[in-house]
Amino acid sequence: MTGSLQIKQNKYYAVLSWYEGKKRKQKWIATGLDVKGNKRRAEAFLKQEMDKLEKIQERHLTGTDQPFLPFMEQWLNEVEGYSIRVTTLEQYKAVFRNVISTFPAFHNVTLRGLAPGHIQSFYNSEIKRGVSPSTVRKYHTNIHKCLKYAMQLDIIDRNPADRIVLPKKQQKAQETIYSAEEIKRLMEFFQGDILETVIRLTATYGLRRSEVYGLRWESVNFEKGTISICHTAVSSKNGVIYADATKTRSSCRTLPLTGSMAAYLRNVQKRQQEEKAFLGTAYVESGYVCVSPGGTPLTPNAVSMHFRRMIRKSGLPYIRFHGLRHSVATLLHSVGRDIQDIQGWLGHSDISTTANIYSHFLYSAKRDMADSIEAALK
């Protein structure tokens, strides 16, 4: 295991590197310390994190057969927690706490006693109670990974999750999307609403929910005419987690600031400054673009509920908030942008993700190509 200090956006980060079996792992941990005058504190923080990880590794390497559920919880907190984003870890913990750990067959069974039948019965029971196959497959990913780690520690010889039957993937229902005209009507309807800025940004740039709520003023560059998507805000059990990172590395992207959007955001910024002057110390200086009149950042879950209520009153077809992202992608395709352009705009790490999600309009493009061939050969 090695550790080092790295600087990013004038802040110290502790970077830990270690091996699990033959696989190299790395985790960046924000110290929250500015570079200037904090080197010793940052070094102490790094040593503390390295000592913590070393104790975790020692505990696992010397472990014998253990109950499955406590082992998985420990794996999530102390091993997987060093490899994934905080927001993702919160989601995994919620699934473990509310679903996996409540299944009776997993109670009091050890890692060596855990059989394929235990896991298969869990998946079958989830399908019976109406959980989607794709969600069950997500449960399986973590259970399999946890048991693979137990194999690496020589606690078990085989992974029982290798020998189960997963439910078949279901075809996703067609997402409701808006035309350009419907997007205009939507923005007009939300004018003056607390979600006005959220809707304008999402319907223009196709941002994820976490990206629009995590957008900071420091990411809006009026001089260069750019808007950078590199912060997120995600609801969790303990509130909202604000992170200086996006879903994937490709999600961190810089997009052009359109003329109308620049003018609109300048007005939003001016209004926030006026509210601050009026409220004084009562105003919350958060640095986020999408805030309530008092400056408090909008929380994703509460806003989603408000969005659903407002859509039902709008007279427009019902759409999920994420459907606005799909609408932007479809709009880009309709004006002649290819799949690679759309991938970069939306921040997908893999072009196959874009292709799978938007296969409906890719097929329409093939239909046009077929018609062109037919016309040429007549």
Unreliable stretches (pLDDT < 50, length at least 5) are none
Q: What's the Cα radius of gyration?
A: 24 Å
**Secondary structure category:** alpha+beta
The run of helices and strands is: EEEHHHHHHHHEEEEEHHHHHH
In CATH terms, the superfamily of the largest domain is Intergrase catalytic core
Distance between the termini: 68 Å
Helices, by number, come to: 14
Give the helices and strands, then pairings:
Elements: E1 2-8, E2 11-20, E3 23-34, H1 39-61, H2 68-78, H3 86-98, H4 116-128, H5 133-152, H6 180-189, H7 196-205, H8 209-213, E4 220-221, E5 226-229, E6 232-236, E7 239-243, E8 253-256, H9 259-279, H10 300-314, H11 323-334, H12 339-346, H13 351-357, H14 359-377
Antiparallel strand pairs: 1-2, 2-3, 4-5, 5-8, 6-7
Helix pairs in contact: 2-3, 2-5, 7-11, 12-13
Textual characterization of the structure:
The protein is α+β, with helices and mostly antiparallel strands. The chain folds into three domains: 1-62, no CATH class; 68-170, DNA polymerase, domain 1 (Orthogonal Bundle), CATH 1.10.150.130; 180-368, Intergrase catalytic core (hpI Integrase, Chain A, Orthogonal Bundle). 49% of the residues lie in helices and 13% in strands. The chain is built from 14 helices and eight strands. The strands form three sheets. It has a three-stranded antiparallel sheet, covered by helices on one side. A three-stranded antiparallel sheet has the order 4-5-8, with no helix packed on it. Strands 6-7 form a two-stranded antiparallel sheet. Helix 2 runs antiparallel to helix 3.
